[in-house]
Amino acid sequence: MERRPTPPSNRAEGHAVPQGAYTAAVTVDERGAVTGWSDGARLLLGYPPAEILGRDAVLLLAEPGTDAWREAAAGPRWSGTAALRHRDGHRLDREVLVHRRPAGKRPGGTEWRVVSAVTGPAAATDRALGEWAFDQSPCVAAVFDDGLRLVLASVGMQHSLSLTEATMRGLRLTDIAPYEGGAEAESGMRRILDGGAPEDVHLRLDPADPEHDWHGRLAPLTDHEGQVRAVTLTAHADPAEQLVWRRMLLLSDAGVRIGTSSDIQRTARELADVVVPAFADACAVDLLDAPRPGAAAADGRALRRAAVRAAPQGPPLAHPSGDVLHCPPWSPGGRCLSEGRGAVYASDDEMVTRWAREDPPAAAWIQESRTHSLMVVPLRAAGTTFGVALFGRNLRSEPFDPDDLWLAEQLAARTAVSIHGAERAQRQHTTTMTLQRSLLPQTLPEQAALDIATRYLPSVSQAGVGGDWFDVIPLSGTRVALVVGDVVGHGMRAAATMGRVRTAVRTLADVDLPPDELLSHLDDLVVHLSAEEASADNAEESAGGVGTTCLYGVYDPVTRRLTVARAGHPPPAVVAAGTVRFLDVPAGPPLGLGGLPFESFETELPEGSLIALYTNGLLEPRDHDIDEALDKMFGALARPAPDLDALCDRVLKTMLTHRPDDDIALLLARTRALHADRVATWELPFDLAAVADARKQATDQLIDWHLEEAAFITELIVSEMVTNAFRYGRPPVRLRLIHDDRTLTCEVFDSSNTAPHMRRAHTYDEGGRGLLLVGQLTQRWGTRHATTGKTVWAEQFLADH
Question: Cα separations (Å) of 492 from 97, 294, 434, 488, 545?
């Protein structure tokens, strides 16, 4: 056989890389400090080792924001163009390769090795190396010109055909190997020269081995302008072991590409994408609306097409995604569902023919696409059938065989496992969402102190729904408590913990504790929750709410004062007189740490001020930093809006460019004020004789307010509450009436800290019925304590107002 000259063996003569080439290598540790510096790095960037070792590697970057070795932290390797800065200040754009590897001296540490090759001008022998590699390749490879005539042949092709390149040069493939597949391969060459895509071919090269076929690949060979000038043919033997190898590769590929998300439709599409065109020429995935345990009964139930794909050379399948298909019990799909196993069918099988008559579009597709082999396998996992997968072949000549059926069942089983996991995750997500929404306020309570609008956005992360919440709690004296909090974690446990913490907040608010005291009691609760779960079997899954943040504020429309305390939560923003600012509320520790103090902050707000409470998900989108997020939020809050609902929507639209990665709770409140004409206060002499005067003063005030219909009940309430203050309290005693749009509140203050309580009076007792009477005549009553003294209050609803 004629052999071409071999390249010179002299290393100096044949070296393709210029003599001036070198490699610049830099090692960077976890802190970003340079720990290694090669001589090539000195040549490239100008720094001697003593000047750069131990310094921050950011000095080497012309654009510090592109921290290449940090980008490599997501995987073992990163490559790309990096903008480097020379010691003298000029910029170098270099192709770099970054490897992440364990640090040599510190167990568990990580370092990054950054390398860049500097080769100088290309040597003339670069092109020669490529030619030698082709000429001497042991693989079967050839180049055919635009006349389909052989131009070059590798050593491997010459050996396989027992022909020299000189003998084959200028001949067409049908002249060189006039056997099965040659004419089809030449047709493929013509299509590629006309602009077609690369194609796979099967052909026979050895006449002495009629059972030995080759698997070939045709690809275009283009010039510098992208014009197709020739066609390359590469081929390898296709024995049974190579077929098995390809099937194993397909299974491996399926393990990576199927089940990448919790979206069932996407999982179905991933199966279709994996098998077409690598395994089948067409694929459809049809799912039952309600998955069934065991093999699904073949009762003619409908299947919904979740995914479909066909090879580009063939016509699209008859039914697109979303179509509902009837599955008769006797059909291939029906038998697959009822028997729980797959089967292979020829297109002329009686069952397929009958099924095609029932479905004319499917029959038309089988005929038009010339589909000759069909295969149906069930999608089953964890004892549940989810649907079927249909595979077809029309471009390949070989039909499906038992090995193909086994492979299809493995692929379908992997898909079903992913669908089962996605369905379970969706059920858990739906359950968690239902639980969380049931624990959040369904409607905002009626109150006169604030105009309020709220928004809640669940996260879309795979971690699931979080434990963010908000609340609005009417308090005595027309005051209103505003609450927003964030429980650590996601999922069902976080939602359940959120419900317990929110219930505790409402209970403590009903006692009318100051904000700092309320958070101290709430901190104790979270500590107890943590202790309970520490003794449970699943203690490693939850910290019982440790790290939960909360902000609790009380607004009084009479004094226009807002009192706020927070436990590790972001501070509230206030908009007043066109200025946006954060309230200087002491941060306080997160809940659950135990024993640490909380402080309250009090401020007076002008009527019409805007208060914004939120969870940290609003300020942590992935596409900008915290300062930019604050600027955006302040800008959105400062601009006028028609109402608070429109302002909520504007804030979310401004802050979010995509669905949030963490839950977001947003509460906006605009302050109102109860002016002096709605509040009446009297200092009472500490004498039981003053009870009658108190009743008269209250009645006269109700007449001024045009509330004569409430005078009788109010007189009884005032009489009982003032009498109790004189009998059991200490001076001074004050009576206050508050009239808002819907309630009339009567309050009596005295300086005693003894709280009144309702008791059952016996038949002949002369007293003990006062608080019982107050409780029967009013909608709510209670006691709130101050540093010194207490206030007993009672509310009446004014139905006509």
Answer: 44, 28, 10, 12, 13
